[in-house]
Write a structure and sequence with these properties.
The structure holds two protein chains of two kinds.
Chain A lengths: L1 E8 L5 E12 L6 E4 L2 H4 L5 H4 L22 E7 L2 E6 L7 H10 L7 E5 L2 E2 L1 H10 L1
Antiparallel strand pairs in A: 1-2, 2-3, 2-5, 4-5, 4-6
Chain B lengths: L10 E10 L6 E11 L10 H4 L2 E2 L12 E2 L2 E8 L2 E8 L7 H11 L6 E5 L2 E2 L3 H4 L3
Antiparallel strand pairs in B: 1-2, 1-3, 4-8, 5-6, 5-7
Classes of the chains: A alpha+beta, B mainly beta.
């Protein structure tokens, strides 16, 4: 899989330095299964707003991003009915960059449909949000 | 042995909820069933910021959820030795301050032990929602 890195903004306005994974999911043989991509492969399929926001980390930089229990939101860029590019998306709903991402994604050659799978914040992290609010 | 709880022994109230999608400036009316009476005593947590988005419009005219799953908090309460969950939709966009305030109102309800948050899911028709 190809990894990118940058600041992730949760729906609850928590900002986390994170790795963003980009993968292909393919259902040629039934269920959608992940396939590793490379940075070179991803380039024509990623919106400019994403590419200009993230860095491509070296292998030692990958450790700079702390693991989080939040399951990151994912944008799905469908290339066919059985194949889509899955992009962990740093921008939260309603923000300008979120709108730009999907606006640019729909114009990309080869992208026929878009999807969004919202993030999941587990109970402990949600409780901490309210303690800090 | 206690009588099993069935949907029939529950009372629900149907409301129309004004919901803002992640995609500005789109909004929609959701048809939402609130549990207003239940043998467990665990009702849908209706807090001021939630009811502020209930509209007097007939719930019948609100659209059913076909094309997407709204963002929500799934609360967990404990009754005896059982966990009981309830769903509260979060109609405010993540960039709206009321988004976090409503989540915390819900978690502050006395019988809510904890809750998890799930963001908006859109599997179809995003192309029609994009303005840019």
């Amino acid at each position: 899989m190809a990894n990118y890195q940058g600041f992730y903004e949760s729906d609850t306005n928590q900002v986390i330095y994170s790795n963003f994974t980009v993968r292909i999911f393919d259902a040629t043989e039934g269920n959608f299964t992940p396939i590793t991509t490379s940075v070179e492969f991803d380039q024509p399929l990623l919106p400019e707003v994403f590419k200009s926001y993230v860095i491509i980390p070296s292998s030692s930089q990958l450790r700079l991003a702390c693991p989080t229990r939040i399951r990151l939101r994912v944008a799905q860029l469908f290339l066919s009915d059985i194949r889509y590019l899955s992009v962990e998306l740093p921008f939260r709903g309603g923000s300008l960059k979120f709108d730009e991402f999907f606006g640019q994604a729909k114009e990309l050659e080869g992208v026929i449909e878009l999807g969004l799978v919202g993030e999941r914040i587990p109970p402990l992290e949600l409780k901490q949000l309210c303690q800090n609010l | 042995m206690s009588k099993p709880i069935t949907a029939l022994s529950r009372k629900k109230r149907r409301v129309a909820l004004l919901y803002e999608l992640d995609f500005v400036p789109r909004q929609t009316l959701l048809r939402v069933d609130l549990i207003i009476d239940d043998p467990d005593g665990i009702l849908t947590p209706v807090t001021p910021l939630y009811s502020a988005r209930f509209l007097p419009a007939s719930p019948v005219s609100a659209i059913p959820r076909r094309d997407f799953e709204p963002r929500k908090v799934i609360t967990c309460s404990v009754v005896g030795d059982r966990a009981v969950t309830r769903r509260v939709f979060i109609p405010y966009r993540p960039i709206d301050v009321n988004h976090d305030l409503l989540i915390c109102e819900v978690l502050g309800v006395v019988y809510v032990k904890n809750g998890e948050y799930i963001g908006e899911i859109q599997q179809e028709l995003i192309e029609r929602l994009i303005v840019l």
